[in-house]
Design goal:
The protein has about 400 residues and is an alpha/beta fold. Helix content is about 35%, strand content about 25%. It is built from 15 helices and 18 strands. Helix 1 packs across helix 14. The radius of gyration is 21 Å and the shape is globular. The relative contact order is 0.15. The mean pLDDT is about 95.
């Protein structure tokens, strides 16, 4: 199998490339991006006979179709705004498609988030007719979170509520970015959705504040509503749902809320002296760029990055044999643990990258039989269980606490 990883030298793409070259069923992994220099530097640093570099400009729509031809799987680990054009190129070229997250594509910026997702669903028949699969939302959250929700639904007669939380704690002596600051802040300032009683409802950014007691060693942390893919996607496939929400938590969230409240994340130009500027653009210009793998390694060795904890958690409510069932599922990673498995990665990038890898691996092993548009919720029960088992093999263990009446 030949795999093209768009954004292959990025914070997450590098994890995907480095892990996939180990797999017996994968013959070639191409690390691609707009900078051939960075792609070649990555390949030189992480030498493998299976790994090569390629220059790909995703803004050049015409050449994209030629680029993806000959690959069995194309993974968009670059930017979800390119999802739709890469999907169309893949179906035309006869390649399977995979992405890590969903959001507005450049072609759907004028639509609601729900309608933007429906535009991707319109390609379902085209992928099916060619015997291809488009694996959507295969990272950490979305991705592993969706696998958990699907698994919870598999174990109940009815799944009624899903309340998700993402908590990240970074202990560092200087500011660092483990994710694209621009994409992170797009999700910060967009009005989040909740799904309630058959309808999507907008709520204000940073609303729904609560202090949630996460499993140790995290403990109580402030959490707020946050725009995320799962709230949009889950109701399409998990039919009994009455309520879905997603909240972001952690010690840095009150600081992020203060940035928002002061207007420093505003996108409307304001006049400063004789010039007009967008506050968000100023803030993003000052934010540290996403760390590259060698930079993570250096900052860990120098003691600048001291620790990191990344956690995803789902509280679900459902029914089994006529009785209410409440369960908590969670998975947690720490910096030192993941660096024993792969040097120079953050807990967050390992979470997301390995989440994506397990989907590609099982597809390469012909253990994902689903075709057409297939986020984790749309997969077969056996496929979800196989993905969860593979995650465990790579150090991502999902814990479950269930409460029900006798």
């Amino acid at each position: 199998m030949r795999v093209l990883v768009l954004g292959g030298y990025g914070a997450v793409g590098n994890v995907i490339c480095r892990e996939l070259v180990k797999h017996r069923c994968i013959d070639e992994v191409v690390c691609a991006g707009r900078s051939l220099e960075r792609a070649e530097a990555f390949v030189s640093r992480y030498k493998s006979d299976k790994l090569s570099a390629m220059k790909v400009d995703l803004f050049d729509v015409e050449s994209l179709g030629k680029v993806v031809k000959g690959f069995d799987v194309v993974i968009n680990a670059a930017d979800y705004r390119f999802n739709l054009r890469v999907m169309r190129a893949c179906v035309d070229a006869g390649a399977n498609y995979q992405d890590l997250a969903f959001g507005w594509s450049y072609e759907t910026m004028h639509l609601s988030r729900v309608e933007a997702y429906k535009k991707q669903l319109e390609l379902d028949d085209a992928f099916r007719e060619k015997g291809l699969v488009a694996l959507l939302n295969t990272g950490q959250d979305p991705g592993i979170s969706d696998l958990i929700a699907g698994y919870a639904a598999d174990t109940m007669d009815h799944l009624y509520e899903v309340r998700m939380k993402d908590c990240g704690i970074m202990k560092s002596k200087e500011p660092v970015s483990v994710w694209s600051p621009r994409l992170l802040w797009i999700d910060m300032i967009v009005p989040p959705l909740v799904y309630e009683d058959g309808a999507y409802k907008e709520v204000p950014p940073f609303s729904g504040e609560e202090v949630y007691n996460f499993p140790e060693p995290i403990g109580p942390q402030p959490c707020y509503h946050h725009a995320h893919e799962e709230v949009v996607v889950m109701p399409f496939y998990l039919k009994d749902l009455r309520y879905v929400e997603f909240k972001m938590g952690g010690p840095d969230m009150p600081f992020a809320k203060a940035i928002y409240d002061y207007g420093l994340a505003g996108t409307k130009p304001i006049k400063v002296g004789k010039v007009e500027v967008e506050p968000l653009e100023v803030f993003l210009a000052l934010a540290p760029p996403t760390l590259r793998p060698h930079e993570v390694e250096e900052k860990i060795e120098k003691g600048i990055i001291e620790d990191e904890i990344a956690c995803i958690l789902l509280d679900v409510v459902g029914e089994r044999s006529g009785k209410e069932v409440r369960a908590t599922y969670y998975s947690m990673l720490r910096l030192k643990e993941v660096n024993k498995r792969m040097r120079g990665v953050t807990a967050t990038s390992y979470f997301v990258g390995i989440g994506a890898c397990v989907f590609t691996e099982l597809l390469a092993e012909n253990r994902i039989k689903s075709r057409g548009i297939a986020p984790p919720e749309a997969l077969e029960k056996e496929e979800r269980e196989a993905l969860i088992r593979r995650l465990e093999e790579k150090g991502i263990v999902i814990n479950k606490i269930e409460r029900t009446t006798l």
